[in-house]
Amino acid sequence: MDCDSWKAKLDIYLDGELPAEEMRAFDAHVRNCPSCAADALACVQMKRAVQVAGKQFTPSAEFRNRIRRKISSKPQSSFRRAWASTAAVAVILSAGVLTSNYLRSRSAENHVFSEIADLHVETLASSSPVDVISTDRHTVKPWFQGRIPFAFNLPELQNTEFALVGGRMTYLDQTPGAHLIYDIRKHHISVFIFPEQALRAGLGEKSESPKQLTFNMETWGQSSLRFFVIGDTSPADIDNLAKLFKAAATT
Amino acid sequence: MSLHSGSFEELAMPLFDQLYNFAHWLTQNRDEAEDLVQETYAKALRGFSSFQLGTNFRAWMYRILRNTFLTSRTGLRATSTVPLDMDEDAVDLAVESETPETILISRHDSQAVQSAIAGLPIHHREVLLLCDVEEMSYQEIAETLAIPIGTVMSRLSRARKILRESLQLQLQKG
C-alpha cells in the first residue's frame, strides 16, 4: 500500500476505528515512514487541540442544583426559602403532611408535636403568614390581648441574632393560642404558646421533641403555659430562643 | 420495579457537565444552553421507563438533547441555513487526502481553535465534538445522530478539513 492510501485512512486510524489488523499494520508503517509519521503527528495535535478547546463551557453550580432538584428521587428536606418560592411551598406542604401522617400514628403526645409541625409548615406556606407584622414586641404583645385568653411576655432581642417577624392567632385542639415567627439567618422559627391545661395530651415538664421530626423542636411548660419552639435551624438556635422565652416569662 | 441498575439521577447526573458543554456548543448561548439541558433532562426523566436496559444511555441522552435542539428555534435556524453536503453518503475520503498542511497548534491557539469550531456548520460541529471531545466511537455517534456510520465518517472528515482550512486562514492572518 502506498502512502496516499495510508494517509486517506489517517483520521480513522487515529480515531482508533480501523479493524484490529489494519491498526497494527498502520502502526508498523508509521514507525518506518517519516512522511506519514509527520502527518500523523499533525493530526494528533489537531485532535488534542479540538479536545482542549471543545471542553470550554461549564454549567454554573446554581444550574446544576436546579436540575438535580428537579430530577431527584428523594424528597427535599430544606425549608429555607419557604416564603420565597411556590415550589418550595409545595415541597414544604408534602413534607409537612408526610411528617404529620407518620407522627399521627404515634402517641397522643406525638399527636401534639405533629400538629405543631403542621401549624409551623402551613403558616410558612401561607401567602400571609402573619396577622400582625412587626419587629417590635411592644406592638405584637398588645395585639394578642383580647384575642387569646392568657397573657405572656416576649423576650428582648437586642444583642441576639433573632428578629421578630410578627404574630398570628392559632388553634391547637380547638384551643386558641399565640403563634410568633422569628427569623435567624434566613431561617424561620415558630414559637407557639397555649394554656397548658387546655391541651388534651398531658405533656410532661420535660417533654422533648420526638426524634423523627424533620424540624428541631423544644417544648416546656412554664407559668401554666405550654411553649413550643420549632424550626429547621440548628438545635442550638432553637435552644437559644427557648432560653430567651424562659427568661422573659419569669420577669 | 424498574429493571435499571441505577436511578435516573444516578445515571444522568454524571453526564451533566458534558451535556451542558455540548448544548452550549450547539446553541452558542448560555441561557439557551440551560433551557436545552433542562428540557433534555425533563424529557429523559419522563421517558426513562421506556429506556431499554443494555442500550447506550449516554447516546440516548445526547440524542434527546440534539433532537430537542433541532426542533428549537435556534436549531431550526441553524439547520435551515446549512445545506447538507452533496456527497453526504459517499465515503469519499480520497478527496480529503491532501497532506494536512502541517499546522502546528500550540497551546496559545486554543482561542483560534474555539472560534474555528464555532464557525463549523452545525452538522459538522456536532460530529467533531462527539468524536474528539466526547470521545464517542463512530458506532455511538451513528446511534446518537441516527445516521449510518459511513455518514459519520464523511462528515467527520469534512469537518476536519474545514477546521484545518479555517485555522490556516486565521493563523496566517496572525
What can you tell me about this protein's structure?
The complex is a heterodimer of chains A (251) and B (174). With 251 residues, chain A is α+β, with helices and mostly antiparallel strands. Chain A folds into 2 domains: 1-58; 60-251, Phosphorylase Kinase, domain 1 (2-Layer Sandwich), CATH 3.30.200. Chain A contains 9 helices and 6 strands; from the N terminus they run αααααααβαβββββα. Chain A has a 6-stranded antiparallel sheet with strand order 1-2-3-4-6-5, with helices on both faces. In chain A, strand 5 and strand 6 form a beta hairpin. Residues 75-84 and 98-106 of chain A have low confidence and may be disordered. By secondary structure, chain B is mostly helical. In chain B, 64% of the residues lie in helices and 0% in strands. Chain B has helices at residues 8-12, 16-27, 30-47, 57-70, 73-80, 110-118, 122-133, 138-145, 149-173. Residues 89-100 of chain B have low confidence and may be disordered. The interface between A and B is large, with 36 and 50 residues.
What's a quick, concise take on this entry?
The complex is a heterodimer of chains A (251) and B (174). Chain A is an alpha+beta fold.
Write the layout of secondary structure elements.
The complex is a heterodimer of chains A (251) and B (174).
Chain A: H1 3-8, H2 10-14, H3 20-32, H4 34-54, H5 61-71, H6 86-104, H7 108-125, E1 132-133, H8 137-144, E2 163-172, E3 175-184, E4 187-195, E5 216-222, E6 225-231, H9 235-249
Antiparallel strand pairs in A: 1-2, 2-3, 3-4, 4-6, 5-6
Helix pairs in contact in A: 3-4, 6-7
Chain B: H1 8-12, H2 16-27, H3 30-47, H4 57-70, H5 73-80, H6 110-118, H7 122-133, H8 138-145, H9 149-173
Indicate the proportion of strand residues of chain A: 15-25%
Radius of gyration of chain A: 32 Å
Percent helix of chain A: 40-55%
Whole-angstrom Rg of chain B: 17 Å
